[in-house]
C-alpha cells in the first residue's frame, strides 16, 4: 500500500479515513540523524512496548491514539494532527539536560521537570518555553496545560510500571496530537524515546547504548521487552 509518510523509525500507511497503520523499522538514528545504524529486532520491540504502554495508560484514564496491534511490527492508530512539540519529562538528570546545566548524569531532580522542544529537524529540535509556544500559536493555553498535566500523570504511571520491573525511568519524550478538538497521546513510547536504567547495575537499557556505542544494544531492547511483557 502507498505510504503516507516515512520517518526515521516508523512508516505510516493510510488505513481507512480515520485511522493509520504504523510500521516500526529497525533503523536507528541519533544526534539529529548524523549517526545512523540498524538495531535488529528493534521494530518489533518498539511496537510491542508502545502497544503495551498505551494499553496500560488507557486503562488508567489517559487518552491515546492507540487502537490495536495488527502484527509484530505494526499497530493501528487514530489519525491525529501532531502538535509540533517534543514533550520531555525528567526524573533524573541525563543527556542534554545534564550537559546544559553541568550536572552529573543520574542526579535526582527535586521535582519532575517538563520541558518542550520544537519539532524541527533543520533547527535541531531547539528547546522552547511555554510563552513562545503560545506566542507562536503552536498550542492554545488550555491545550498546553492539558499536555503538561497528562505528561506528569504519564510520568507517575510509567515510573511505577518500570520500577515493578527492575527498571529506573530517568526521562522520556512524548508527542501529542489533536483529533476533533481533543488532545490525545500519540507517536510511540519505547526504548528509543525513554532512558531506562537497570535498578541493580545502573546500566542503560535504551537507545543510549546505541548513541554512546556501549554494545549489547539488541540484547538491551530484548530484555526491556521481556520485562514489559512479564506483566
Ligand atoms: N528524546 C527523543 N527524541 C528526541 C530527543 C530526545 O525521544 O528527538 C528522548 C530521549 O531518548 C530521552 C529524553 O527524550 O529519553 C530526553 O532527551 P534529551 O533531551 O536529554 O536529549 P538527548 O540527550 O537524548 O539528545
Automatic annotation (TrEMBL):
For this UniProt entry, the molecular function terms from Gene Ontology, in alphabetical order, are:
ATP binding; phosphoribosylaminoimidazolesuccinocarboxamide synthase activity
- One example of a Gene Ontology biological process annotation: 'de novo' IMP biosynthetic process
Gene3D superfamilies in the cross-refs? ATP-grasp fold, B domain, Phosphorylase Kinase, domain 1
Does this UniProt record's set of keywords contain Methyltransferase? no
Q: What is its EC number?
A: 6.3.2.6
Coiled-coil ranges (or none): none
Enzyme class, UniProt record, top EC level = ligase
What InterPro entries does this protein map onto? SAICAR_synt/ADE2_N (IPR028923), SAICAR_synt_PurC (IPR033934), SAICAR_synth (IPR001636), SAICAR_synthetase (IPR050089), SAICAR_synthetase_CS (IPR018236)
Q: Does the keyword Nucleotide-binding apply?
A: yes
According to UniProt, this protein's pathway is: Purine metabolism; IMP biosynthesis via de novo pathway; 5-amino-1-(5-phospho-D-ribosyl)imidazole-4-carboxamide from 5-amino-1-(5-phospho-D-ribosyl)imidazole-4-carboxylate: step 1/2
Residue ranges of the SAICAR synthetase/ADE2 N-terminal domain?
3-227
Sorted keywords for this record are:
ATP-binding, Ligase, Nucleotide-binding, Purine biosynthesis
Q: What chemistry does it catalyse, as a reaction equation?
A: 5-amino-1-(5-phospho-D-ribosyl)imidazole-4-carboxylate + L-aspartate + ATP = (2S)-2-[5-amino-1-(5-phospho-beta-D-ribosyl)imidazole-4-carboxamido]succinate + ADP + phosphate + 2 H(+)
Q: Which family does it belong to?
A: Belongs to the SAICAR synthetase family.
Protein name per UniProt: Phosphoribosylaminoimidazole-succinocarboxamide synthase
Q: Which organism is it from?
A: Thermus scotoductus
